[in-house]
Design goal:
Helix content is 9%, strand content 32%. It has 3 helices and 18 strands. The protein is elongated, with a radius of gyration of 26 Å. The protein starts with 5 loop residues before the first strand and ends in a 27-residue tail after the last helix.
């Protein structure tokens, strides 16, 4: 297989990676293995993380709904040599994501295939094991993968909460401790009869861009009129409906919902008082205290 490499040579150490990793965001690729490490050699064979809906390793859940599910595919980026086994662990933020389902993609082979998969609160580990020493597990795979970029695992996450402004990462890890008798969770490949560790690894990121909204539109009907004043008064004093977009209800831009907001709307309608941006057209704003879970009028 002829795969063109791109070389980076800072000072003395020179490393390379295949162009497929360049599809990822630049800050979502990390150096994982260097040839100077004593116990294993590095390989340019690596994994690819790809969200089904975005086709990349980053996804924006701007219109987040609790319980929404995301699918993340793990693919192999095969360099030189046939891959006959692999294992890895993935770590995520348990306050943002929960693993709902792991689907191991079927791989053709003549031997017995040993597949392990386990999901915990903030981690998952999986792999097809070629050989584990000390009698813990032995599998005669009879499998060789030389096709580039086959999918080997599909992970279904449910979204529990909106990620922070910097996003929430899903990343490979060597730090998982398996239960007794379980296979190892090192991030590596079996190529031929040797164990190799990927030189570079991607990360996946979930972000949530601030939604666009129209300030003063407290009832989310796309207009700013007297009904928004009434809506806010009912919410504040009569136990009315909670605004779907609190940012839009913050008519005076104070980052607090109080009596000054319906007053500002009333003053704008009848006395020409201004309303802070975004108004009179939609826009975005970072607010520390107020959320905008749903606003579909922009």
């Amino acid at each position: 297989m002829n795969i063109k490499k791109i070389f980076l040579c800072p000072l003395i150490v020179c490393v390379s990676f295949s162009p497929s990793l360049l599809v990822a965001q630049e800050d979502l690729v990390e150096l994982f293995c260097v040839d100077m490490e004593p116990h294993f050699r590095c390989t340019d064979t690596t994994y690819i993380l790809e969200f089904t809906s975005s086709g990349s390793n980053e996804i924006d859940i701007e219109h987040f709904e609790e319980g929404e599910t995301l699918e993340l595919n793990v693919l192999l980026d095969v360099d030189n040599g046939d891959v006959s086994g692999w294992s890895f662990g993935l770590k995520h933020d348990s306050e943002v994501l929960k693993v709902e389902k792991l689907s191991v993609v079927e791989t053709e082979g003549n031997g017995d295939v040993c597949v392990f998969k386990e999901a915990k609160e903030d981690t998952l580990r999986t792999g097809i094991v070629f050989h584990v020493f000390q009698g813990i597990l032995f599998c005669d795979l009879g499998i060789e993968i030389s096709e580039n970029k086959p999918a080997i695992l599909r992970i279904t996450y449910s979204v529990l909460s909106r990620p922070s402004t910097s996003g929430s990462l899903i990343r490979f890890t060597n730090d998982l401790i398996p239960s007794q008798g379980a296979p190892p969770t090192s991030v590596n490949f079996t190529i031929g009869t040797a164990t190799r560790s990927p030189r570079f690894l991607p990360q996946a990121r979930i972000i949530s861009s601030p939604p666009s909204f129209l300030r003063g539109d407290a009832n989310s009907d796309g207009l700013v009129n007297i009904s928004d004043t009434i809506f806010m008064l009912e919410f504040l004093f009569l136990g009315g409906k909670i605004p779907q977009c609190q940012k839009a209800s913050d008519a005076d831009g104070s980052d607090v919902l109080d009596i000054t907001d319906p007053i500002r709307i009333y003053q704008m309608l009848f006395f020409g008082q201004s309303i802070p941006s975004p108004f009179p057209t939609c826009g975005r704003e970072e607010a520390e205290n107020l959320d905008c879970r749903v606003y579909q009028e922009c």
